[in-house]
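quick one, 405 residues, struct below
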Amino acid sequence: MRTLPELLAPAGTLEKLVFALQYGADAVYAAGPQFGLRAYAGNFTLSELAEGIQYAHRIGRKVYVTVNIIPHNDDLKELPMYLEAIAAIGADAIILSDPGVLMLARKYAPLMDLHLSTQANAVNHLAVRFWQEQGIKRVVLARELSGAEISEIRGYVPEVELEMFIHGAMCISYSGRCLLSNYMTGRDANKGECAHPCRYQYALVEEKRPGQYFPIEEDARGAYIMNSKDLCLYPYLADILQLGLHGLKIEGRMKSVYYVATITRAYRLAIDALARGVELPPQWQQELTQVNHRDYTGGFFLEKPTSLDHLYAGNKGQGEAQFLGIVRGFAPEYGLLIEQRGHFRVGTKAEIISPGGGPWPIEVGGILDRQTLHPLEAARHAQQLVFVPYHESVPEYSILRASLR
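---
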């Protein structure tokens, strides 16, 4: 029986790590306090990372640590000690992109599995073979590959583990190697500090007419000439499962707990159903619209993107549900214990999703403060614990949301 690929989810915080694993990820990728490409993602301290790794291992899952910046000389000084620390706390692999980091990882973390980041731009079978010969166990392929190209690479290097991105934000630059942020803001995108200037609003200025701004596209909100749609390969999962990959990856370490849980759940359900030969219900794909997202695109999977794969009218995302809270317990006399994450009040119509079930409808018939048991019209502050009447317990880590469908 063919083994299914790992489903990898992003973990920007310890809480996101837990939710990603609870909602179906086989592994998560996370950054420690240094050397990752999401400097503003709320990265883990080493103690938090150790806690997350222990949690993942207890439930039979894995944690891969990103060390994928493009380092300068000064960055190399602390790297050996950092690699030793990552190995000591039991990380399952290091994700890297730089040959110098690779050399140090082989020396200071010799027992660690090494994965090649998409930042290394692997787009052909000879590149994959080269990296394998340097000690790389798994190659995260560049997003700029079609399904046919991935299949061809698989045929040339059947013994190398291959991984691809299947969902999340797309970078305008090749495999994320971007200089726009450095040039415009002084923040180095290749060291984790990207300011996302590809999402900025742009206009045209003629040299002899300074101060006169001409729209590049006729739109009242401006022109977003480098703003890509978000990648979504859910419709092509059946084909992707035939490619013989070892990992399918969701982007989004800077996304919310709700985003990570919902997207991971959708792909987990779909992958498992396809493995059983079950046709995917249409409502499962609808779950991908219940989070904040840009319009979706298939990226390079079928063909090279065109102008239809960009958003010229704006850079804001859209979503069809509001994240209201997390179920933290149940008391028969009071109902569900909810940790508030979004505004809701008595009378709010909502629904509940869990790692393996839902959505189930619920109307907020009342709210009780957990500490005082006094009735409230609405939860007063973020992460306040309140009881909401409900007829039965629901699984731990369930989520309360208000669907806008």
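The CA atoms of residues 68 and 96 lie 4 Å apart.
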